[in-house]
Amino acid sequence: MKQLTLIFLFFAVDLQCQNDSLFNVADYFIDEESDEGNDAIIELLESLHNSPVDINNSSPEELLVIPFMDINSARNIIAFREQNGRFFSKSELYMINGLDKSIVKLMLPFVTTLQKEMIPDVRNSVLDFNLRNRISSDIQNKMGFITNSYKGNKLKSYTRLRTGYANTNLNLLIEKDPGEESFTDFYSFSLLSDDLIPASTVIAGDYLVEFGQGLALWSPYSISKGSSSVSAVIRRQREIRSYSSSDETNFFRGFAIKTHLNPFNFFAFISQNFWDASLDYDADVFTSVSKTGYHRTSAELNRKDRLKNASSGIGLGYRYNDSADISFLYVNTGLSDKLTVSDNISLKNFQVYSGSYNFYSNKISLAGEVSYNNYSWASINNIYFNLARSITCIFSYRNYPSDFHNLYGHGFGETSTTQGETGLYGGVKITTGFGLFNLYVDQFRFPADKKHAFDLTGTEFMIFYTCSILENFIITGKYFNEAKEQMIEYNSNIIVAERILKKFRLGLEFPADDNLRLKSRIELSRCSFEGISNYDKGFLTYFDIKYSIFSNLTIYSRISYFKTNNYNSRIYEFENDLTGVFTNTALFGEGYKWYIMIRLKLSFGLDISCKFWEMYKNHTSAFGSGYDEISGDRLDKFGIQIDFYPFKNR
Length: 650
Fold this sequence. Notes:
Blueprint: H1 2-17, H2 21-29, H3 39-50, E1 53-54, H4 60-63, H5 71-84, H6 101-107, E2 111-112, E3 127-138, H7 143-146, E4 156-165, E5 168-176, E6 186-193, E7 200-210, E8 239-242, E9 252-261, E10 264-280, E11 285-290, H8 298-303, E12 307-320, E13 324-340, E14 346-360, E15 364-372, E16 377-388, E17 391-400, E18 421-432, E19 435-446, E20 456-470, E21 473-490, E22 493-511, E23 516-529, E24 535-550, E25 553-564, E26 571-574, E27 584-587, E28 590-602, E29 606-617, E30 622-623, E31 630-631, E32 634-644
Parallel strand pairs: 1-2
Antiparallel strand pairs: 3-4, 3-32, 4-5, 5-6, 6-7, 7-8, 7-9, 9-10, 10-11, 10-12, 12-13, 13-14, 14-15, 15-16, 16-17, 17-18, 18-19, 19-20, 20-21, 21-22, 22-23, 23-24, 24-25, 25-28, 26-27, 28-29, 29-32, 30-31
Helix pairs in contact: 2-3
């Protein structure tokens, strides 16, 4: 009887979940107020999709690599496995008490049972090959092209090759941004082997290093505050891993090794890379590092690869069963010239020392990191409570001094700089028979410095609800409130005022039939400043259609209408895009936006995707500013992508 139930679950749910899994998961997380458009977030999800976690053999710590997995959910999975034996299909996760169906749906593309799971025509091969080519462009010309200030054409091109045999993998990537002259303006490469040294992973080329809670070392992206109130706080390090993103700054280039000799873990790395930086010729010091990766104009080309950084580090960890681990890290960095990181500190050669800990028990878990950079100590400490099978909560305290300067850190917090911030965070997740509740409260403070003479404080509150009324019929609701002090100009004076931002969202997703899926959302925003009577408001609504004409041909479309008073009440719209592309548009003013995207999957391992989108704004004469300005009230863009992976299971 159990097998018949699993067969039904698999064919009804699992095959459908594999489509658009990256978009569905990203939409769950990337919905907070954010101007960052980091394609590397999608790269993280795609790497997990390509290397899913084995739920039949994974420890709680290994399950926690999945971004939205919390400790309680991981324990529930393992308890179910110990009681019922190996998972026959990953859709058995729907049968576990304490796991909400909407979370299981997000989880399925990132887990495996290492079995064929009844998929027809499965081809098993140790050879892997994936080639991706993508081009995109604005239809209209930006001012930089009209004035010939941009050196190259307006095409954005991207080519990535991933190939491997057995336990050796090669990544190659080249990219060109619009306006850049060379089609190889940025390149990245890495070679990873798990066979070269026993019990070790070795990487040559470009790679990322993750340690502890991200104070000393972390990748350039991470899941932070959002709809997942509990699982987003505690980081789960993966030490070293290959780099294959188009972000042109935040990675290491050289050699890295990771060795596991139970109960010890060891990793080391050495790197030499170049950053784009601006030089103050009078002071003979670099004033900033440019992270845009743009090399379009003479000024941008003059900043290219100006600052060399050489880094090395070593990490050592000890794990006691699956209940505790402690790790230590030392990193040394040398820059070719001084880099100003604050009003009175310039760095050239510096070290970072860090220690992290994780302790697990049935009801309480602890995790944290303490880091020292020769100027000050930074720390974050988290305590996780499993109050019941369906109730979990977390409390976190962070303290990042203003003189804690670290070029590679990306800790949890209100900002991604891991500097000049203290905060107290509390989150709760409640799984009920009628839906999943996530809520958090975060109080933070930015200490006074030369930019602002007073401490600036803020408080955030969020509650998110989702439920599956029927199979794949999902309702979501979200309320967000932020009160945050800011320096603003008012009546020709600079004052400190509390900005109060409120947002409300209601979403609905449901299948009209086996081939047609519909999704809609309504969102409201309201922004005001304490002591100022005026307030700004915003409204967004959109309607999504996904229609599978044939089993290998799918059409996606969305039409959005938005109306806001100005940028203060902007609303973000994360949208489905070509695989690997992050699109989180800030909509403000009044107008509409629509797109259509077509995906064709061919039987011999060739996928073709193309997308066209258009934005129209009332009462506007241009989009953007400076060299990026596009005249008119309409903005059009297209993109096309070809993926070729002949050895992948279809």
